[in-house]
């Protein structure tokens, strides 16, 4: 997917699954790549495990943080039961990244890093350097979580490569 146009990504899941953190990392990656970035979030009852969605838009120039229904280039769904709830945001032919993409992940994947593993899958669809992804992961997480999440990111990329 080319970053010469505005790219629209929705990250969706349940409160406590790292939806907002994943969107923070994605926005940071785009910013580090020199792109204009806008981000918005809908928390709902997220503190009680309710639906959470975050829109991230990036490209040469982005005017609005909100993604119009049916215009998302990519949809990351952290909780499988949120797939049908959020599918309407994905444009025809858009990329759906769900936990199913991690079914054949090499090695053991910890539940608390699934959001970053799904970013690894997403990264294979975007023309943004892996090094920038790794920098953004480190910048957005405490040092004690770097190793686990960098491994999860690599596992997500490996899982996507197996499916290609």
TrEMBL record:
SUPFAM superfamilies in the cross-refs: Pyruvate-ferredoxin oxidoreductase, PFOR, domain III (SSF53323)
InterPro entries, alphabetized: IorB_Oxidoreductase, Pyrv/ketoisovalerate_OxRed_cat, Pyrv_flavodox_OxRed_cen
Pfam families referenced in this protein's UniProt entry, alphabetically: POR
Pyruvate/ketoisovalerate oxidoreductase catalytic domain mapped to chain residues: 15-100, 111-157
Superkingdom of origin organism: Bacteria
Keywords tagged on the record: Oxidoreductase
Name of the molecule in the record: 2-oxoacid:acceptor oxidoreductase family protein
């Amino acid at each position: 997917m080319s970053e010469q146009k505005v790219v629209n990504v929705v990250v969706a899941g349940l409160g406590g699954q790292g939806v907002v953190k994943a969107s923070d990392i994605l926005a940071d990656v785009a910013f580090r790549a020199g792109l204009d970035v806008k981000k918005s979030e809908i928390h709902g009852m997220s503190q009680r495990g309710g639906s959470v969605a975050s829109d991230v838009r990036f490209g040469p120039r982005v005017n609005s943080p909100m993604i119009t229904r049916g215009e998302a280039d990519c949809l990351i769904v952290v909780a499988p039961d949120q797939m049908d709830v959020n599918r309407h945001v994905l444009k025809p032919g858009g990329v759906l990244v769900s936990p199913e993409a991690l079914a054949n992940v090499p090695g053991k994947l910890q539940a608390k890093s699934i959001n970053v593993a799904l970013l690894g899958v997403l990264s294979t669809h975007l023309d943004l350097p892996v090094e920038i992804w790794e920098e953004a992961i480190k910048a957005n997480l405490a040092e004690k979580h770097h190793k686990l999440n960098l491994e999860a990111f690599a596992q997500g990329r490996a899982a996507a490569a197996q499916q290609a």
